[in-house]
Write a structure and sequence with these properties.
This protein has 166 residues and is mainly alpha-helical. Helices cover 71% and strands 0% of the residues. The structure holds zinc ion.
Amino acid sequence: MESITHNLTAVLIQILCFNIFFNPLNIIFTIIFAFFSHFLSDAFSKISYHTPEAMKNDAFWITWHIIIYSASIITVVIFFIPFWLSIFSVNLPDIIDWFILRPIKNKKKRENPEGIIKKNYSVHQVSDWIRNKLLFWLPDLTYKKYGIITELLMVGMLSFLIYLFI
Ligand SMILES: [Zn+2]
């Protein structure tokens, strides 16, 4: 899903963990649940408009991404204090893949352009596994523009729950 959905899920997880558990379990479970929620949300991205490649010639794609990225930044600003820990944890899989594993993979490729890279340099394979093994029955709306409705519903539902619990 988009970053805003990850962030709102993380905020909700932190609220619930801090209501249910005592120190230090509240912190530990916030980190663990927020981190793993990322994979679950990404597995569900199949039922939202989520093209793997940037479609820079498509006005709809551009407009949607301007809106959803701005909204993501706004959630980080609004919730950073006191939810920075869960927001950091939920974004950790993307940070690991983009800033650690991908550069390692690219370096290996540069050193050995002919070689086949056997190792899967991506923690997102967890999402792929969930999507293929458990969510295979869901419709694929990756390229369907109306798939933004799924994302909007998720954002609406999470915002409402946060509003209820906060
Ligand atoms: Zn991700």
